[in-house]
Amino acid sequence: MEPTAAHSSVFTAAEVADIRERLEALVRAIPDLTPERRADLTLAASELMTNATEHGTGDDATVDVCVLDGAIILTVTNRCDTDVPPIECWTMPPVLQPRGRGLAIVKASADHVVVCQADGGVTISATFLLAEASGNHPPRTTLDGTTAATPAFACEMICDGARR
């Protein structure tokens, strides 16, 4: 199945704001996406791209966005030497802690998140379902991951891509 809209960019820390603006323009053109979901997607993209530049090697991070089968799939890949904590650990830190909210924001705003770590790199994919605009939004993923909103083939593609 071919995506109906797509964007792919290699980026550095200096380019995050510019790419975020391009992604905002892309998602504004998607008719079944509410303004709130656009904001969720843009914020998640910004958080994942910032994490990729801060925690990765900074020289080969990529962001991909595609609309596929009723969902927008946002994928950020980078080289890094640190492990990403399990998704169930992505919680908001104490209020006075100045950092550490990015992954919790992604988890709270996306319908499903997949993390693949392989060969010194990490790929995080966040899925945003388009059905929310029509009121047919399925339940979000639970903390134990029992409600999977991302089509299985998309998860396989994401993880296969991370291993290449």
Identify the notable features of this structure and list them briefly:
33% helix, five-stranded antiparallel sheet, 24% strand, alpha+beta, disordered C terminus, single chain, 164 residues, globular, Heat Shock Protein 90, 5 strands
Describe the structure.
The chain has 164 residues and is of the alpha+beta class. It has one domain: Heat Shock Protein 90. It has helices at residues 16-28, 35-55, 102-109, 152-163; strands at 5-11, 61-68, 71-79, 112-118, 121-129. It has a 5-stranded antiparallel sheet with strand order 1-2-3-5-4, with helices on both faces. The protein starts with a strand and ends with a helix.
Q: How much of the polypeptide forms β-strand, as a percent range?
A: 15-25%
Query: Could you give me the name of the CATH homologous superfamily?
Result: Histidine kinase-like ATPase, C-terminal domain
SSE sequence, one letter per element:
EHHEEHEEH
Strand order of the largest sheet: 1-2-3-5-4
Rg estimate, integer Å: 15 Å
Span of the ends, CA to CA: 21 Å
Largest sheet: 5 strands, antiparallel
Residue stretches low in confidence (pLDDT < 50, at least 5 long) are 132-164
CATH level-two architecture: 2-Layer Sandwich
Number of domain units: 1
Secondary structure: number of strands:
5
CATH class (first level) name: Alpha Beta
Question: What is the CATH T-level topology?
Answer: Heat Shock Protein 90
Mean pLDDT: 75
| Helix residue percentage | 25-40%
Structural class: alpha+beta
Tally of contiguous helical segments: 4
